[in-house]
Amino acid sequence: MPKYKIEGAVYEASTPEEAYAKHDANKGTNASPSRERTLGEQFRTLPQDLARQLALTGRNVVTGVTAIPGMAADATMAGYNLLSGDNQQMPTQALQDVMTRAGVPEAQTGLERGLGIAQSAIAGARVPMPQVGTQALANFQRAPTNVEREFAATRDAGYVVPPSTIKPTMGNVAVESLGGKIATAQTASIRNQEVTNKLASQSVGLSPNQPLTKAALKNLRETAGQAYEKLGNVGRITPDLDFYSDISRIRSSIAQIQRDFPKADIGSGDKIDDLVKSLQRPGFDSKSGLEYIKELRKSAVGNLTGQNAADPANRSLGTAQQKAADALEDMIERQLSQTGNQSLVNDFRAARQLIAKTYTVQNALETTGNVNAAKLAALLRKDRPLSPELTTAARFAGAFPKAAAMPERIGGAGVSALDATMAGAGGALGLALQSPQTAAAALAFPFARYGARRLALSKALQKGLLKPSRKLPRGSTGAVAGAMAGMEQE
Fold first, then answer.
1. How far is the CA of 226 from the CAs of 222, 223, 248, 337, in angstroms?
2. Contacts of residue 401, Cβ cutoff 8 Å, sequence gap at least 6
3. Of residues 481, 490, 472, the one with CA closest to residue 121
4. Which of 144, 184, 149 is nearest to 164 (CA)?
5. Closest to 299 measured CA to CA, from 314, 281, 280
6. Please, are residues 446 and 76 in contact by the beta-carbon 8 Å criterion?
7. b vs e for 196-228, b when ≥16 Cβ sit within 10 Å of the residue's Cβ?
8. What is the rounded CA–CA span in Å between residue 84 and residue 375?
9. Pick from 2, 99, 5: which is nearest to 56 by CA?
10. If you write DSSP's letter for every residue of 250-274 in order, what string do you get?
11. What value, to the nearest 5°, has the Cα angle with vertex 42 and ends 39 and 46?
12. Residue whose C-alpha is closest to residue 456's, from 238, 173, 65
């Protein structure tokens, strides 16, 4: 029988509790033989009880290793008992009983129970989880989706999206539901419109605080046009083969139709033919060419914006006028390059690009003063050249059309009728029940929804949309199962 030394006295006992009971009896105390030992007492007996602790460790390891298969076995047995009406013992409990009958000790103290749970968890963590199907490599990272790539490319500009658009996790869906899906989308639209307007202003060199109006864009064109005036002394421009090739492509689609359908009535076909013929000249004065470019740009804007844009014939003509202006500018720039005056070429090129950007922005400018990012996205789909800022706005609108919708079309988020009704009814109910807590919770409901929308579109949450979902550490499932199995021994 093991011997235990307690405060200088030696006792023979089968367990530490029995030894302490004998010690208490010798001291004349009335302590119960089954009293719980202090933590210090438990630690002092560990070396004397080494064999017992090794046996307990063995029990705990077996408990942890069999935790996951034991859960499956218990579930199977529970189903059998339910269907058969029998009351068979659970396999995990049967395993514990077998170890007890074999003489393996059971935990008796708080320290032993705590160590047992930890040991079962460690053992359970070492058990591999059953795998179904082909498993990915350990360091495998899936390729980002198209919306993830587009959001990554545009988020730094300040754009936001309802979180479930990219990562529809339970938490993201819950936050949007609390804030209201429609209200969250409306709030995102308002923020995104500010970003689009800012990018459009940056693309043409306007201050963000300066209103983006047709008048402001016209002033920019007039300033940039001063570089065009310097070309008045260049003299005659002699078109080259590239120029004639460019203008021939303006009516290529119409020519294709007319070859097979000679009598087809093609809206603006005659006007486009006249436009192409006007460009088929052996030469022209640089000043005349620049004036013609201005008229073509102005006419193109008129045909591609407002009510005129609703007519397909006007849109075809406007597109042809844009291409004609591009062909003339390309021709002038090529001839300028041959003069060797690089400074003049650079000034012309910079002015040309700025003027083109002002027209692009103006074509997308609505009467409200907001830039319609959807129109920029349409240009991008047609491979029209855009500045970096306008490309960002176009990419975002192309990937997230709802988040880039015009605020004036979808409305703004406010206190809805549902919010007001719930707050009012809940507050009245709380007062009727004389429950200030109920009344306060009801009145706080609209504020909670507002806070949820702020959270959904916050920088931290938006940034987290591009991070890979966190995975549980390897072995964590087995560790939890092992710990639970260890606690069930109590």
1. 7, 6, 30, 19
2. 374, 377
3. 481
4. 184
5. 314
6. no
7. bbbbbbbbbebeeeeebeeebbeebbeebeebb
8. 69
9. 99
10. HTHHHHHHHHH-TT---TTHHHHHH
11. 140
12. 173
Question: How large is the C-alpha radius of gyration of the chain?
Answer: 40
C-alpha closest to that of 196 among 354, 376, 355, 363 = 376
Q: Where are the alpha helices (DSSP H) in 27-169?
A: 39-45, 50-65, 67-84, 91-101, 110-125, 146-154
Q: Which of 113, 116, 126 is nearest to 66 (CA)?
A: 126
**Cβ contacts of 465 within 8 Å, gap of 6 or more:** 148, 151, 161, 163, 166, 167
Report the 10 Å Cβ neighbour count for 333.
13
Structure tokens at 445: 């409901």
Helix, strand, coil % in the chain, rounded to nearest 5: 70, 5, 30
Tell me the β-bridge partners of 11. Answer: 4
Neighbouring-strand partners of residue 10: 5
Backbone angles phi, psi at 384, to 5 degrees: -75, 140
Structure tokens at 335: 């001839």
Round to whole Å and give the CA distance between 379 and 296.
19
What number of residues does the chain have? 490
Q: Global pTM? A: 0.60
Cβ neighbours, 10 Å, residue 85: 7
Inter-CA distances, 229 with 16, 258, 291, 294, Å: 105, 40, 10, 12
pLDDT in tens, the chain (490 residues): 666 667 667 777 767 777 777 777 776 654 444 455 566 666 656 566 677 778 888 888 888 888 888 888 888 888 888 888 888 888 888 888 888 888 888 887 777 788 888 888 888 787 776 655 555 555 656 678 888 999 999 999 999 999 999 988 888 888 888 888 888 999 999 999 999 999 999 999 998 888 899 999 999 988 888 777 776 667 788 999 999 999 988 887 677 666 767 666 666 778 888 999 999 999 998 888 888 998 998 898 888 877 887 888 888 888 899 899 999 989 988 888 887 778 888 888 888 889 889 999 999 999 899 999 999 999 999 888 899 999 999 999 999 999 999 998 887 655 555 555 655 665 566 556 556 665 565 556 667 788 888 999 999 999 988 887 655 566 666 667 666 766 766 5
**AA letter at 300:** A
| Residue position matching structure tokens 């087995």 | 478
